[in-house]
Amino acid sequence: MSPATPTGADPATLTATQAARRERVLRAALDLGAEGGYDAVQMRTVAARSEVALGTIYRYFSSKDHLLAAALVTWTNDLERQVARRPPKGKTPSARVGDVLRRATAGMERQPQLTEAVILAISSPDPGAASCQGEVAGAMARVMDRAMPDDLDPEERANAARVLNFVWYGALLGWVNGWTGTDDVGREITRATELILRQFD
């Protein structure tokens, strides 16, 4: 079935029942991605796993890449809640920001097939997937903001978070594509946080 709109329904317009159904679809996609990677997430399989009709799924998500990119939004929102419950550790801003980024990466390392699926999807030129990129960046910026100094200028905080977000994403993309290993992701994150934030330590 063709999607109802180019980018699917706006989650803000859904009823509570529709939102719960959409959440089931997202969780099913996350589970399938964790089990078998990008290729395992087929829309019909998601429909069967979530017990949501295929046509209904296409009203929420315009494509497989849109669905997986939205699943990454869910993952980063989960991370944001975890960091709120368990604040960043470290005596300096660079240590604290590095801590939350390494925690994010550690979660992805535990589910490499899911990481491959969501990073490939969020990198897609698909319009639906592209619509999720800002949400992922926003969630990661809020996560890093919790580790920034309270007296740091808001513009400086935003600039640091944006650059570190690009580094984190680029390192993950290199890992997913086989250019680097997981150890390299950690090293790049540590190097970037020290270079950008050590002036505030």
From TrEMBL:
Residues 19-79 form the HTH tetR-type domain. The keyword Repeat does not apply. This is TetR family transcriptional regulator. Residues 42-61 bind DNA. One of its GO terms (molecular function) is transcription cis-regulatory region binding. Keywords: DNA-binding. InterPro entries: Homeodomain-like_sf, HTH-type_TetR-like_transc_reg, HTH_TetR, KstR_C.
